Amino acid sequence: MKKIILLVLVVISGYSGFSQNKTPGKINRFTDLTVAAGSGRGTAAFSYVHNWELGKKQKWEAGFGARLTSYFGSKQEHTTAPARLARGTTVPFAVVFAPQKSENWDTLTVQRPWSNALNLSVNFGYNFTDQWSAGFNIDLAGFTLGRKTAAILTSNGITTTEPAAKPSAFNLLLTGDLDHGSLNSEFFLKYKLNSRWGIRAVYQFYFSEYKTATAKQVAPDGTLVTRFRQKGNNLGAGLAYHF
Amino acid sequence: MKKLLTWSIPLLVLFTACKKEKTNTSVVSMDPVDTTAQLAYRSVFTDGPYGTTMGVAKIFKKNNNYSLVLDSFSVNSGPDLHVYLSKERQPVNFIDLGVLRNTNGTQVYTISGMPDFMEYKFALIHCQAFDHLFGSANFY
Questions:
Q1: DSSP designation for B51
Q2: Do residues A231 and A207 lie in contact, with contact meaning Cβ atoms separated by under 8 Å?
Q3: Is the dihedral angle over the CA atoms B16, B19, B25, B30 positive or is it negative?
Q4: In chain B, which residue's Cα lies nearest the Cα of A40?
Q5: Domains and CATH numbers, chain B
Q6: Which residues in chain A touch residue B22, judged by CB atoms under 8 angstroms apart?
Q7: For B72-81, how does the pLDDT look when each residue is reduced to its tens digit (9 = 90+)?
Q8: pLDDT tens digits along A67-117
Q9: Could you tell me the pLDDT band of residue A13, with boundaries at 50, 70 and 90?
Q10: Cβ atoms within 10 A of the Cβ of B135, count?
Q11: Contact B15/A239, CB-based, under 8 Å?
Q12: DSSP label of B33
């Protein structure tokens, strides 16, 4: 828990310092609707973005926003979520590059997932020209609402029914498998059609997390696991309105 | 506007490319049953809370390999119907033998491994997506 609090403080202080040291430039404000799809699943995300243009030429931009992502699908496989089981380390940032411990993974097949995650986000971008830009954004923290759905837990070839799997309620970016909940992130290429409208091609990396109530994985250390995560790669398109 | 349309087409393709598991309802299945196999267990299907199921569930054994035969079988159509061997009538611990291939006729499903039928004593027709039981047969 101390690590979590420390990381959040570092992130917040880092970003507030960032905005104080730079001379604020032009503000780039827009809303965006993006739909994306992967294998048997889809997302629809509505975002508000508030970016400051940075640097001498104001090519760079960074800022905050909020995003509501609705995730839905059919028979989506989620695997063991806790980083101490899923990865070789639990050190923040290093966990992203640590080897996967797939021998510890069990699979929760969520039959009809549907969740709605509202998160604060951080955004970065670079404007190549007046029309073309590219960037990255990622959810930081928030909460998720969603319906309960049947799921099947497969553990060492044995299948058990989970009658009411539900999305994890709270979301927090802690890097890699340390994350909690449902978090959206995107790499994108954007083309501005005019001063108001823009379109985006999006590669989306979406973390979905479900919790079980009755079916539980018994980990090798004897603990019970109820959190299962899907890291989904999706492709999509977005429509942005600047104001 | 043309550009928007250009973007929407690949997106529609992505959304419609999702896989669907579907049970055949238009023809009557007539899987060949191995007459040299030994009948080990037999039970008549009864309706579940969400379906009307008729026919006989038979477990055949040959050379330490088991198969489940749904004989003179019929069930009303439903989404995502699977054939289970289960420890409970409402499945908690089960073996999924696969998607129900047909709502009518005789069908054979291979059982992998050597389950203990004292434990896995139910053959079920179960809607996996909604966790709804359509029919069950109890071997004990």
A1: B
A2: yes
A3: positive
A4: B18
A5: 21-138 (2.60.40)
A6: none
A7: 999 999 999 9
A8: 999 999 999 999 999 998 888 888 888 888 888 888 889 999 999 999 999
A9: very low
A10: 26
A11: no
A12: P
Q: Length of chain B in residues, anyone?
A: 140
Q: Which residues pair with B98 in a beta bridge?
A: B83
Q: How far is it, in rounded angstroms, from Cα A45 to Cα A33?
A: 6
Beta-carbon separation of B93 and A235 below 8 A: no
**SS3 letters for chain A?**
CHHHHHHHHHHHHHHHHHHHHCCCCCEEEEEEEEEEEECCEEEEEEEEEEEEEECCCCCEEEEEEEEEEEEEECCEEEEECCHHHHECCCCCCHHHHCCECHHHCCEEEECCCEEEEEEEEEEEEEECCCCEEEEEEEEEEEEEEECCEEEEEEECCEEEEEEEEEECCEEECCCHHHCECCEEEEEEEEEECCCCEEEEEEEEEEEEEEECCCCCEECCCCCEECEEEEEEEEEEEEEEEEC
Distance from CA of A103 to the nearest CA of B (A): 22
- Radius of gyration of chain A from Cα atoms? 19
> Residue B93 is nearest to which of A42, A160, A193, comparing CB atoms?
A160
Under 8 Å between Cβ of B139 and B121: yes
| 8 A C-beta contact, residue A190 and residue A133 | yes
Contacts of B89 in chain A (CB under 8 A): none
Contact A118, A183 (CB under 8 A): no
Residues of B engaging A, defined by a Cβ cutoff of 8 Å:
3-4, 7-8, 10-11, 14-15, 17-19, 80, 91-96, 128-131
Amino acid at B119: E
Whether residue B126 contacts residue B137, with contact meaning beta carbons closer than 8 Å, is answered with no
- Which chain A residue shows the shortest CA-CA distance from B96? A159
Question: In the beta sheet, which residues pair with residue A139?
Answer: A121
